[in-house]
Amino acid sequence: MTQTSSPSRPGIAELTEIRVREPWRITEGWAARRRRDLAGVDGRLMIVAADHPARGALGVRADRWAMASRSNLLERLATALSRPGVDGVLGTPDILDDLLLMGVLEDKVAIGSMNRGGLQGAVFELDDRFTAYTPQEIAVRGLEGGKMLTRICLDDPGTVATLEASGRAITELAGHGVMAMVEPFLTVRREGRVHNLLDPGSTITSIHIAAGLGATSRHTWLKLPVVEELERVMDATTLPTLLLGGDPSGHPDETYAAWGRALDLPAVRGLVVGRALLFPPDGDVAAAVDIAAALVHGAGS
User: Fold this and answer.
1) Which end of the chain, C or N, has fewer beta carbons within 10 A?
2) Poorest-confidence range of 57-66, 153-162, 222-231?
3) Whole-angstrom distance, CA of residue 66 vs CA of residue 158
């Protein structure tokens, strides 16, 4: 599907011109942005994710460069954010600043992705350093939350630094009264590649480790994969949980069915989905997003 710019919002050339000549507009834009409550009346969230590129993860299914075009990605995000029932977006500062200048973040939840240092395929991939948003910047700009990837590899001594940094970020975000979205995985390295363990036992263990991070849990949410025995898995926590979209290579109907079943569980409060919705097999971003939003908020959302 060809993505075209709306005449009412700046294109990529104008975004660059603003950054060159009027960078203060980003600061002023965040200060003036219309905000909303984190969770709406139904206590649920449908969030579109766009923080993969900052880890060098640009591929979707067989196309390893699917997310390489910033103009194309921004148009897909703008389409997604325009759909009823989409509550907001998760991204790194470059993405969120662009969307802000495009005027598509009004009355939306904006969640800043914080640690993007573990680049996909790098020898240091499990070193999930905090290289993007800080808790202070998230609070100052009025973002509604900060997200951290927290991979736990028992064979990697660097994991303890990730745990320490995540705990500190959770504490600082809570001090600002802002959501801390923690995405934990038990992880292993096999034949030089990093693999997240997606069995129920590993997911339950990761939940307990993540839930104990930080000096308080009052603003902690979890971001978890859809795995087998999810009812047993979700019995491991009282923390509100958003489910991640998962591998977009599966058949969409099967994916939607799995999301629908998972969303019936009490602690599950919505979805955080990126590539599966932004790059659906048929190219129809609006239709894919509408299905997901209806699953989260109900038909007619």
Assistant:
1) N
2) 57-66
3) 31
Q: Are 117 and 131 in contact (CB under 8 A)?
A: yes
26: CATH = 3.20.20.70
Give domain status of residue 151, yes or no. Answer: yes
Q: Range of 291's domain?
A: 12-297
The residues facing 195 across adjacent strands are: 188
Name the residue among 17, 22, 4, 30 with its Cα closest to residue 103: 30
Closest CA to 263 of 219, 221, 293, 300: 293
**Assigned domain for 4 exists:** no
Neighbours of 157 (CB within 10 A): 8
In a domain, 99, yes or no: yes
12-36 pLDDT tens trace? 889 999 999 999 999 999 999 999 9
The two beta strands, 88-91 and 109-113, are parallel
pLDDT tens string 211-220: 999 999 999 9
**Domains in the chain: how many in total?**
1
In single-letter form, the type of residue at position 162 comes to T
Would you say residue 269 lies in a domain? yes
What are the pLDDT digits (tens) for 258-275?
889 999 998 999 999 999
Summarize the chain as % helix, strand, coil (round to 5). 40, 20, 45
